[in-house]
Amino acid sequence: MVITVTGAAGMLGSRLVERLTADGHDVRGVDLRREPGVTLVGDIRDPRVMDEAADGAAAVLHCAAALPSYAAAEIRSIIVEGTANVLRAARRARVERVLHVSSTAVYGLPRQVPTPEEHPREPVDTYSAAKATAEEIAERYRAEGLPTAILRPKTFLGPGRMGLFAMLFEWAEEGRNFPVLGSGDVRIQMFAVDDLVEAVVTVLAAPEEVANDTYNLAAERFRTLREDFQSVLDAAGHGKRVVGVPARPALFALELLERSRLSPVYGRLLHKLRHDSYVSIDKAIQRLGFTPKFSNEDAILRTYEWWRASRAAAGGAAGPMGSRATGAAPGGGRTSREPWRQGALSLAKIFF
Questions:
Q1: What average pLDDT score do residues 299-308 get?
Q2: Boundaries of CATH 3.40.50.720 in the chain?
Q3: How far apart are CA 84 and CA 99, in angstroms?
Q4: Are residues 95 and 86 in contact, defined by beta-carbon separation less than 8 angstroms?
Q5: DSSP character string of 93-135
Q6: pLDDT for the residue 250
Q7: Per-residue CA distances from 334 to 74, 134, 139, 189 (Å)
Q8: Angle between helix 126-143 and 82-92 (nearest 10)
């Protein structure tokens, strides 16, 4: 098939381009950045770009998105306007199937765990609101006859992932303890990018009545945040531990730093890390026949091993791709493949 992948230079998009090409498909990668796998350089919000990208394609995989660290107007523009333009182009081109990569962020901060797909969308910030609106647009196109799968993955990681995880990896490598809010005994579900790629391929091959639906995707096996982070410190080999810090004063300080743009840790993440956060994947298992292969620990340790190898290859620099974040939005890199600048949090190292 001819398959179009938006966000083809990103962590997920680039992996999908590699996998689909290896499977024998003719892949068109769309991205603003001219990198391997990108055959069409352009903005998903540009109708001409997406018309060209969708023309003759059997499927469009919409992976392009903004990060929570982007400016609010940019988040809404990329996620909402971008998704609407991608779907318009797909319908004009009579594409047989669209796959929209959404996020479990649409649930906001649900108290029902595991959270099922039927749970109301209750966004709590600009990013989750934009993701929820993009889903509404996708559902409207689905209702109007465009076969559209909506995938809601938990935070996915694997080789190539940086973002906030780079902070954990750097502190572990330097032989420091690592802080968590409160006791850290909350169950936070993640997802291996290799499993996400496999899920996308599964949806592409599924019958239309199965694919034309909405699915949570996440690790089937996961432990507490303390245990998963401790596995990284253990792998670093310095004998360091995950250390709980009093939640209330830490939250006050982190929220103040966020408002001052001195910390990359955004509000929804702060509050999510204080409560169990996991979704039901029963629907994906039973209806799609998809079962994740990797646990939280598998995914985070594979990412850490990649980070260490990349760091060593760079001669012990602060982290792979560290220089690419210089033009980033305040508090973070432009993509999840770049490390978030720690800002004032780096000063906390002296206490750990």
A1: 95
A2: 2-157+191-217
A3: 13
A4: no
A5: TT-SEEEEE--GGGG-S-SSSSBPTTSPP---SHHHHHHHHHH
A6: 61
A7: 12, 20, 28, 24
A8: 20
Among residues 121, 110, 53, the alpha carbon closest in space to that of 87 is found at 53
Written as six digits, the tokens of 327 are 């033009």
> 207 is written with which tokens?
């019958």
Tokens representing 148 are: 């559209």
Confidence of residue 28 (pLDDT cuts 50, 70, 90): very high
| Structure confidence by residue, pLDDT tens digits, 126-139 | 999 999 999 999 99
| Distance separating alpha carbons of residues 14 and 63, to the nearest angstrom | 10
Level-2 CATH architecture, domain 2-157+191-217: 3-Layer(aba) Sandwich (3.40)
Helix then strand count (H, E) for the chain reads 13, 11
pLDDT, tens digit (0-9, with 9 covering 90-100), for 93-120: 999 999 999 999 999 999 899 999 999 9
Q: What is the DSSP string of 6-64?
A: ESTTSHHHHHHHHHHHHTT-EEEEEESS--TT-SEES-TT-HHHHHHHHTT-SEEEE--
What angle do the packed helices 47-54 and 82-92 form, to 10 degrees?
A: 40
Whole-number pLDDT of residue 331: 39
Closest CA to 193 of 29, 12, 65, 66: 12
